[in-house]
Structure formats: structure tokens, C-alpha cells
Amino acid sequence: MICTRCAKCVRTKTIRLDLRSLNIQGDVRRVDCIDGDHFVDVMLNDEIIDVNDIYSDRLADEWRQIQTDRDKVLFYILSQIVYPNFDAPRAEKFESLYAPVDEHDIVSLRWQKGKAIGFYTVKPTGTEIFSTKERYVMPIVDTAYVRSEYRNRGFGTEILSDVIARFPNEDIGFSKPISNGMLRILKTFLMSHKEYRLRFWEIADCDIGVSQQLIWCRLKKMAMT
Question: What's the confidence (pLDDT) of residue 27?
Fold first, then answer.
């Protein structure tokens, strides 16, 4: 087949993807370029799903919970291909690769002019932590990502607003470690929204009770050092 990145006919390999945690009903396959050693396409029931395409039924600029199999495949591409390969996480900024979501995680995509440009995921209250059997006592923002070419446009702050609207009467947790980028967004938000300073928490999945810390208190401590 013709690889658009290599601009020539190349050898490819096709892998069937197990995306049961996303409850995808169709057949999903990933195509990789052997000659160039990179990703080419993801196919859903023999249809190419391209994260750079414009989808006419998603023209509203908004955060929207995933609904269709196509939405779910786009989330997979963003979280497991685009993010690690094109916006590689940097450990010194407390960024990390993202594990596949659990079945009950809430996943939302950011649509911009018909393109899926980012996502965030939430673990609902009561989600059990596999390693400790503890359960989260509040919804946890577990992952968040916006493609680098769309950053510094306020989409990170939109995540906070969207989560608050979804869980208006609950405290909100953020998975530890919080990346430097998200911490900056949280600082700016909490500086101007005092009512949330006692509602945003940093929480690790290894020991919920001990690790739970108010993000505002952490920011104040950082300012003193």
C-alpha cells in the first residue's frame, strides 16, 4: 500500500486491536508501516478512521462524551498513538504514558471545527483500585491531553469547567502526579475561583487516604519554597 508519510509503496503489517474496555462492537485493526517503522492507519470495519479528518456530525466546538465506535477509535488514536509518538511525554514535567481506560471510565473528546483534538478521562466515584481494592471517594480526572498545535487556547481550563458542570456537588480529584502543565492551569483557575480551593484534590492510586492533598495547599507550599 501507499504510505502517506513515506510517500511510496511500502510493506505493512496489520494488527487486530482488543478495545473491549471501550465497548467497541466493530472490528478494529491497526496498520503499521514496516519499512518506515511507524503507524499508518486504524481501520474500523474496513473504514479508515483518520484523526486529522473533519467529521460533519461533530462541527460544534465542544467537549463531548464519546458515544459512537468512531469516537472511541479516535480516542484510542489520540491516547495511544498521537500522544506517545508525536507529543512524547517528558518525565521532568511529570508527564507519562497513559494506560488503556477501564470499562467504566468516562471519556470526553474536544471537538474543534469537526476534528478531535484532545481528550480527558474521569474515574467515577466508587471505582475500585485493582492493586489495593480501595475505592475512590470522588470523581478523579485521570488523564488529559490536547494536541500540541492546539495548546494555549484555553482548552485545559475548559476541562476543569466541564468536569465541574458534570459533577456540580462533588469534590474533584486529580491523579498524582499532576503534570506541570495541568498544575499551571489549576493554579490560574484557583487564583480566580476561590470557591473551588477546598474542592480540588491530588490523589495517588496507591494509598488514597494518605496521599490525598488539597491542590491549593500544595500550590501555597510551592510558592513559599
Answer: 94
Q: What is the mean pLDDT of the chain?
A: 92
The span from the CA of 2 to the CA of 7, in Å, is 7
Describe the strand order of the beta sheet including 200-203 as a list of residue ranges.
62-65, 106-112, 115-123, 140-146, 172-175, 200-203, 213-214
In order of 32, 50, 57, 115, 137, the CA distances from 43 in angstroms are 11, 9, 19, 17, 38
Q: Is the dihedral of CA 139, 126, 95, 22 positive or negative?
A: negative
Name the CA dihedral angle for 125, 25, 143, 16, rounded to a multiple of 10 degrees.
140
CB 172 within 8 A of CB 190: no
Collect the ranges in the chain with pLDDT lower than 70. Answer: 1-8, 10, 206-207, 209, 225
**Strand, coil or helix: what is 52?**
coil
The predicted pLDDT at position 211 comes to: 75
CA distance 84 to 126: 29
Alpha carbon of residue 13 to chain centroid: 27
Say which DSSP state 59 is in: -
Q: Are 104 and 65 in contact (CB under 8 A)?
A: no
pLDDT of 208 reads 72
In DSSP terms, 203 is beta-bridged to 175
